Amino acid sequence: MAPTDPETWTHGPSIIKENELREVAMLLGKGFRVHHPDAIGGISLSHNPNPQKYMVMQYHSVENGFRLPLHGLLRGLCLHFGFAPGQLTTNAHKYVASFILRCCALDRIPSLDEFFLLFSIGGFPFYSLYPHNHFPIFEKVEFKHEKWSLRYFVIEFPAHSPLDLPGVVLRRSISRTKFAAAGLAEGVYNALREKEGLISHHSLQDARLYKKAGFYYPLGPDPFPFEGVPSPEKPKAPSATESNPAMRSPGNQSQGNSTAATGGSH
Known about the structure:
Layout: H1 18-28, E1 33-35, E2 54-58, H2 59-63, H3 72-81, H4 90-105, H5 112-118, E3 119-123, E4 127-131, E5 152-156, H6 182-192, H7 207-213, E6 240-242, E7 259-261
Antiparallel strand pairs: 1-5, 2-5, 3-4, 6-7
Helix pairs in contact: 4-7
């Protein structure tokens, strides 16, 4: 397969389904509006005329742990390299979410510097994360879906709280970064690891950790499963629902009153 040319790559049409839009609207919660890309002019990672207002995200990234309000760790990662949040692979979003929640479980502030000691990154047009060969914290993520990158939707941010991250594709391949030296990574590894073995991503799905992280959490005390685990039955969301302000956290980009809704069907 020929390598993708960063200068000419375009994001194909979205294939997300209406029921999947309803699901992400409920999981991302209060203060945001969710649209099908076709309902707002065909916005995608390669075409976003208003990046302060709209963010492109994949359905499976939400399923794998992406949440709102935006956490400072994810914002820092995107700003460091200059890519849009939707350019991380769905598996990468799971590692980011689990790192944040694990830090919260240990009453540690998630640090981008520490994150870089445990993960390598690289790729194009979507960037993957690779756990350190000698210091893995979490179980390996091996989720595969043939068309995950096309199952995307658009998040609308409130006018009074514009998005301050890149909104379109970074047209640059990132050569896979080197793993940190053992002497640097070992300290963070020992602080975060579970002595019994690799940490299950699902074990971190706890409402208390979501609250600590500042994430909206719609299902109360019951953990929301990652992909591959049956979810509780969810009621249908109306096409437009009034909502209250989203949770705020000092490390997150705060959002205010808006609506959580689905866009048109594909």
